[in-house]
Design brief:
Blueprint: E1 2-4, E2 6-14, E3 22-31, E4 34-39, E5 47-49, E6 52-54, E7 59-62, E8 64-69, H1 87-99, H2 102-118, E9 121-128, H3 131-141, E10 144-151, H4 165-172, E11 182-188, H5 196-209, E12 213-217, H6 223-226, H7 236-242, E13 250-254, H8 260-269, E14 272-275, H9 277-283, H10 290-295, E15 300-302, H11 316-330, H12 338-352, E16 370-373, H13 386-393, E17 399-404, E18 407-411, E19 414-415, H14 420-428, H15 431-451
Parallel strand pairs: 1-5, 2-6, 2-7, 8-9, 9-10, 10-11, 12-13, 13-14, 14-15
Antiparallel strand pairs: 2-3, 3-4, 7-16, 16-17, 17-18, 18-19
Length: about 450
């Protein structure tokens, strides 16, 4: 028998491979951080280990991928829910302008990555500020991440000059060399908050440094009209194509208001879409034509958006929304079957991030990013269909084990890599200041809305 680092057995293994194979009493063999074999119980006679994980008839699946988030916003989760009209510009951004700093971003990211680990997310893509602090927190917990340094046309916490995020990203790039699971991206905020020339600078730097770009696209219906340099009055996607910005290393977040011609451009350029149905439903910002994108073969993954958008950073509710919103949009309950939705949350997300050769499915040679979801809690009974159970029944508390690169990050609901109580105290110290400012901002924002 071959000695290996770890064996997971006695679970329903959802491989999410090209054949979507399922092994009812499956086995996953792990060695040196990679998946060595996936199959039925017969594998147990070929391999031996000192670390054997009994899945106890649970669901064994690839770690989920959150393709769009603003994780440090977790410090402000639950604020600004009083019916403020312009919540982004009138509330979110003023809150960040007054309160964000390196320490808060680190403390909030630590809590957020712990939350993700406990809810079965092993990889996430973010766009925020001081992403070197985010990288430090993410590495501590042990997750995989693509962290986009924000570039925007006005001063922010880590850039005193407009568009200073470009220089900041260049300065911190070398710090990411020490992380095996965390990589840097460029995150121009949106087409309407950067000039055409600055967007071209982002594209040039991306090409030079060979790093991806993560950008908001058509989240709001009015974006096209807000682009100062859009003299031809093109759609947002066709404007970005026209200025030479689009390429195959891009994550396009939202795409709520793209049309069929836009989708053709996205497909041609090889971009991926980060779909955020829960945050967009809550914010009433629109519904992306995801069925059409999938039909065209565009990579699509799921995102939570920021914790001030959907209030959650797990993908279980998001999977439910991904299914139900598209069915309502098309008035067709046969669309978005549960297996398709789970594919979006795993392999779909991996493709959007360009990581499909490393993660997203349980296959020989891939990194061992694996989640076990128990099926014995009352909300999971009966579990006739594991895909349906994940999309319509499960919640983060059903996740029993989270593994990244073969390292067990969380086991039996216990986080093994960082101290949760210390992390809670780190975030709690900010609460009095946050709550005092938030109250004043809410009053101001509501008064401004009433005056319009």
């Amino acid at each position: 028998m071959t000695k290996v680092d770890c064996i997971i057995h006695n679970g329903t293994v959802l491989t999410i491979n090209s054949q979507m194979e399922v092994f009812d009493k499956g086995v996953v063999v792990i060695d040196k951080g990679e998946i060595l074999a996936v199959g039925d119980g017969s594998l147990l006679s070929d391999y031996d280990t000192d670390k054997k994980i009994d899945a106890q008839r649970g669901i064994v699946m690839p770690g989920m991928v959150n393709t769009h988030c603003h994780l440090p916003m977790i410090a402000f989760r639950g604020l600004g829910e009083e019916g403020i009209q312009d919540r982004l510009m009138g509330y979110f951004m003023p809150l960040e302008k007054e309160l964000l700093c390196r320490e808060l971003i680190y403390d909030a990211t630590l809590i957020g990555t712990m939350d993700m680990a406990l809810s079965g997310i092993t990889t996430y893509a973010d766009m925020y500020y001081h992403v070197d602090e985010m990288a430090r927190a993410t590495a501590k917990v042990g997750l995989r991440a693509l962290l986009g340094q924000t570039v925007i046309g006005f001063p922010v916490v880590d850039a005193k000059e407009p568009y200073g995020g470009l220089a900041y990203a260049r300065n911190i790039r070398g710090q990411f060399d020490k992380y095996s699971r965390v990589a840097l991206a460029l995150a121009p905020h949106a087409a309407y908050t950067l000039s055409a020339d600055r967007l071209r600078e982002v594209r040039a730097m991306s090409d030079e440094l060979d790093i991806p770009i993560h950008i908001h696209i058509d989240e709001f219906e009015t974006e096209k009209s807000k682009i100062v340099d859009n003299a031809k009055s093109l759609s947002v996607v066709r404007y970005l194509e026209d200025i030479g910005f689009l390429a195959d290393n891009m994550i396009l977040a939202h795409c709520n208001h793209v049309d069929d011609e836009d989708l053709k451009v996205i497909k041609e350029k090889g971009c991926g879409i980060a779909h955020n149905p829960m945050a967009n439903s809550k914010g009433a910002t629109g519904t992306a034509p995801i069925m059409e994108a999938i039909e065209k073969g565009i990579p699509v993954g799921l995102g939570t958006d920021g914790p001030m958008g959907s209030n959650v950073i797990d993908l279980f509710k998001v999977m439910t929304y991904a299914c139900t919103v598209q069915r309502m949009r098309k008035m067709d309950r046969t669309l978005m079957t549960p297996d398709q939705v789970v594919h979006l949350a795993t392999m779909g997300g991996a493709k959007v991030l360009g990581l499909q050769d490393q993660i997203g499915s349980l296959e020989k040679g891939k990194q061992a990013d694996i989640v076990i979801v128990e099926t014995q809690s009352l909300n999971m009974l009966p579990c006739h269909d594991p895909y349906a159970a994940l999309v319509f029944q499960a919640n983060p508390h059903n996740v029993r084990t989270t593994m990244v690169d073969g390292q067990v990050i969380m086991e039996n609901r216990v986080l093994l890599t960082a101290n949760m109580e210390e992390a809670k105290k780190g975030l709690e110290k900010w609460m009095p200041k946050i709550q005092a400012l938030a109250k004043n901002l809410a009053i101001k924002a509501k008064n401004n809305s009433a005056a319009i």
